[in-house]
Structure formats: C-alpha cells, structure tokens
C-alpha cells in the first residue's frame, strides 16, 4: 500500500467527497503499463504480427497498447530499433488531442524524456517541423537520444528556457503542447518518490510556473493555432485554475471541446475560483475511472493575434571536399542521397528541417536530422541516420532475427562473422534498422554506439 501524503488525503477528501474512496482504492491496484507503436518505423498491423508481447488496445490512441507485467518490452531488440516507445497510457491522450498534421510546425515546450514528442513526430510522418524543448540539460540529452532512437528526421531539440524561445518564435507554430512540470499526483502509483516530494507548497509553486510557461506558449502560437495543456496531476490549482487565470489574461484564447472516450471526465467547474463554466471542456483522466495513471488535458484555440514574421536564414557554405565524402558515401551505400539545407556543427553534419528562423544564440542539441561526421577525408554515417532508414533505402543490409545470438552480439558491441557485401551495412532486426556495421571479408565490425551497448 502506498503511503499517501496526509495533506493530499485531507485535501482530496474535501474536494471529492465520497468519490475519494474510489481514488484511494485505485492506489492499491498495480500500475498500468503501455507502449505506443512508432509508425515512423513500422505499420501497426506489421508490428502486431511480430510482437512477442501480450497487447491490448488503448481506446483513445490507435497506436497505443497495454502490455502485461512479465513482458519487459524495454529489454527487447525491437525497443532499440525504435519500433515502439514505452508510454503510460493516459499520457497518450495528449498527442491524440493535439492531432498534428503532416506539414505543420509543432512545438513541444516541456518535452523530456520525449513520450509526447515522439508521438507528435509519428503523427507528422516526417513532414513539417517539430521543435522539442527541454529546460534541464541532462533531461534534454535523454530527449535527444529518444528522438534518435525513434528515427525522427524533422525534429530540432533545444535546451532552453521558454522566454528565450519566445524571442525567436513569435506567432510561429501551428500547434503547441505544454505538458507542464507539475506536482505529479498521477505518478504516485508509478513512482513512490513523487509521493515523498509532494507538498501543498509545491502545488502552489507549480501553478505559478505553469502560468508563466503558458504565457510564453501563447506568444509562440499562430492565430487560429491550437495549444494543448496537460499535466499528470489532479490538483485544481494546477489544472482548472491555471487555465481560468490564463483565459482571464488572454481574451484571444478559448477552450474547445475535445473528443471524449470511455472513462474521460469533464473539468470540474466547481473547483474553479469563479465557477468558470467553459472549464467543463477540459478533460480529467482519473485512475479510478479508466486504465491509466491519470492526466488533465485541455485544448485551447488562439482566435487572433499577430501574423508570423518571415525571416530568411543564411546558412554557412560547407567545405566542398567534406561534402564530397558525404555524397560519395550516399552514392555507395544509400539508394537516394538525403538532400536539403545542410549545416555543420563541429564535425557533425545535419540536414536542417525548413525553419525560417535562425537558431543562433539558442542552446541546440540536435539541429535536425543527424547524417554523420565529417572526418578527415572520410564520412562516417551516424546512428541517427541508420535508425531513420527503411531497409529498402540502404544498398547493403544484414538482418538478424529478434531471437538470434547475432542480434544479442550486435547489441553488446561484439564483432560478428557473417556473409554479405564488404563496406557499410545497415544492420536490421527482422528487417527494421537498428544501427551500422562495416563488413570486411565476412567479419562485421560493430558500429553500435558504445553508450547504448547491452
Ligand atoms: C511532465 S514533464 C514532460 C514529459 C514529456 N512531455 C513526455 O511526454 O515525455 C515536464 C518537463 O518540464 C520540464 N520543466 C521544468 N521546469 C520548466 C520550465 N520552467 N519551463 C519549461 N519546462 C520545464 C521538466 O524538466 C520536465 O522534463
């Protein structure tokens, strides 16, 4: 039995009345676990044919599934190949509500570790732009690794404070997700530390910060743009009341109705300061009403505002010899050489998504699709390039079965004896890319990144 904070119990009993007993009982049940199929890498039906897990659909997310306790999907080669992301089922509702369309510009302002960003990227299907931002440097690194693992090409990962991003991206995005840092009451079952860190003071602090973040997001949204606000907490101060205050300060915004699935409950008007009726359009996902740990979500629309400014960005010309090495690699080992706006960060070569904003002065971890490193007189392809390729896009492919000794050796970083064509080979598991290897006379030199090895 989880030891819930006393102040939390008193407060929730007062707010919920008899319903509190149902909430409390839910803390005695096991946590709910889910995974979301990454449709950038594999079709849902194709995954279901090869999945070794016991899966059951999550009703509000087409690609979302519950898995069972013994499944351990985090320890499977398919995980390293980015075929899915392990995500708490109620968190999957945010992407579904934001509903990004291919070609749109989307910002995920509080993005690490990347559950919702990788969902958004899958929905964009490689078209348009995703800016995934995380304020904490260490968490931003994990976000960037997850963007890489999921094979995302059109994502820029930044490590910024929202006010600094605001200066660059005024009225810029079609859609924004603010999955705000919160007191984490929906994490109590999953993470006992969330219980220990909880306090009434922290709830109040979170509410102030959430409003500040929302204010920045509001300025970055285009007129007619859509903003989804979400938290994984239940406190009215961080949910209905933050939005009530925001709507009061931003007359250009209104709440819009969201699709309702079984178990989704409306926002609680009686918990707002001024009985603001429109807040019933928000959604509450309670752990005692559906199979999920719990979330609060709302969709806001910006009715009017300034139009975005167009800025022409000048990219530095790249060294011709280095680029020749890149194009030689592409001709020899890829069916089609990736083209676009190239930029170089140190030795690293990236293909920049269409952005029309200069990234100068921003802390950028990943300025787009990482293609590889430009070494002295040779090009070395990146792990990100491997993971973003379909097997038919590479000239030489070696695919191992998911249950083979070879795939385990590969993930451990070992050298493998195997037949194939000498040179760079795209290594796959069951036909899905997982990394690079270089074959020389039937010996495969392992290029699986050292930091990821099992
Ligand atoms: C709920 S988590 C995000 C989870 C993420 N959206 C996902 O689905 O994986 C909130 C994030 O906001 C970040 N954060 C904390 N303070 C912030 C601030 N002042 N501005 C923006 N983000 C902040 C936290 O570091 C944390 O990673």
Automatic annotation (TrEMBL):
Domain of life where this protein originates: Bacteria
Single GO molecular function: RNA methyltransferase activity
Chain positions recorded as S-adenosyl-L-methionine binding sites: 110-116, 134, 179
Active site positions, chain numbering: 232
Domain SAM-dependent MTase RsmB/NOP-type: 1-303
Record-linked CDD domains: AdoMet_MTases (cd02440), RsmF_methylt_CTD1 (cd21147)
Keyword Cell wall biogenesis/degradation: no
PROSITE patterns reported in the protein's UniProt record: NOL1_NOP2_SUN, SAM_MT_RSMB_NOP
Family: Belongs to the class I-like SAM-binding methyltransferase superfamily. RsmB/NOP family.
Protein name: RNA methyltransferase
